[in-house]
Amino acid sequence: xxxxxxxxxxxxxxxxxxxxxxxxxxxxxxxxxxxxxxxxxxxxxxxxxxxxxxxxxxxxxxxxxxxxxxxxxxxxxxxxxxxxxxxxxxxxxxxxxxxxxxxxxxxxxxxxxxxxxxxxxxxxxxxxxxxxxxxxxxxxxxxxxxxxxxxxxxxxxxxxxxxxxxxxxxxxxxxxxxxxxxxxxxxxxxxxxxxxxxxxxxxxxxxxxxxxxxxxxxxxxxxxxxxxxxxxxxxxxxxxxxxxxxxxxxxxxxxxxxxxxxxxxxxxxxxxxxxxxxxxxxxxxxxxxx
Amino acid sequence: xxxxxxxxxxxxxxxxxxxxxxxxxxxxxxxxxxxxxxxxxxxxxxxxxxxxxxxxxxxxxxxxxxxxxxxxxxxxxxxxxxxxxxxxxxxxxxxxxxxxxx
Lengths: 290, 102
Description:
The structure holds 2 protein chains of 2 kinds. By secondary structure, chain A is mainly α. Chain A has helices at 2-18, 22-63, 80-105, 109-126, 133-145, 151-181, 188-209, 215-261, 268-288. Chain B has 4 helices and no strands. Chain B is elongated, with a radius of gyration of 13 Å. Chain B starts with a helix and ends with a helix. At the A-B interface, helix 7 of A face helix 1 and helix 2 of B.
C-alpha cells in the first residue's frame, strides 16, 4: 500500500516537473493576451482606415466640381482584395495570441482544440507560402494529444512546439504590420496620410481662392479641411504608437522561446510589450473620442 | 541610396509650409502639391525598381525642389523659382512612373 502511494507521489512529481511553471504560464498569458489585443486592434483599425479613405475621396469629389464620376475608385489606393489579405494576416496574429493565452490559462481542452484549428487555418491563408508540415503538426498535435490524462505535460510540449515553429512566421506578420502602420510608408496608414494631405490641400485651395463665396461651398471646404486635419493627426499619433508596439512584439516574440525553454527566465521584453500594447489601446481610445 | 518616397513627402511638407505662409497661395502651387500627392499614391501602387537612372533622377530633382522650397519659406519672393523646380521634379517622377507602367 505504502509502495503504491510512493509510486503515485513520484509519478505526480515527475508530471508536475514536466508542466509549465507558474512564471512561464504568467509570461505566456501576458504575451498571448497582448498579441490577441494587438490583432484585434489592427483588424479594427485597418477597416477604419479603409472607411476613412472612402470618406475622404468622397469629400474630394464634392469639392471638385470638374471631376468626372466615371472611373473613380473611392477606396483608392486601397482595394477590397488588399484589405482581405491584410485582415487575414492580423487575424492570424490574433489567433496566435489567443491560443497561447488559452494554453496558459484555460482548463477546457475543447476550446484549446478549437483555437488550434483556427490558428492553422488563419496562418495558412495569411502567409503566401502557407504553413509548413512541421508548423501544422505543432498545432494539430494539440488536437490529438489533449484528450490524454497527461494534459499539463502535453500543454507544455504543445506550447514549446508552437512557439518555436511559429516564431519566424510571427516575425513576418509583424514586418507586414510595420509597413502598414508607418505613417509615411507605402502601406495602409501611408496611403491614408497621402489621401488626407491631398484633401486638405484641395480644401485650402477652395478656401483661399476667394471664388467660393457661397456659404454651402465654404461649409463643404471647412468640413473637408477638418476631416483631413483630424485624419493626418490620427495617422501620426496612432502610427507612432503602433510602430513602438510592433517593434516590441518582435522583441517579445524572440524572448518567448527563452521563456519556454528556461523554467525561471524572467522576461523583460514581454513586460515592455504588454505596456506598449496598453499605451496603443489608450491612444486609440483617446483618438476615437476626438 | 536615395529614397524617393521619403524625399517626396519631405518636399510636400515644405511646400505645404510655403503654401500656408501665403495669405493667398498661388493656384499653381496648390495644383503642384495635389499632383505630388497623386504621384505618392501612384508610387504606393507601383512596384518601383530603385536601381534605375530614372529613379535616381527623380529623387535628385525632388531633393532640389525641396531645397528651393526651404529657401522660399524664408523668402516668399522665391516661390516662383520653387514652382519651376517642383515642375521639373514632377516631370521626372512622371517619367519614372511611365517607365514602370510600360
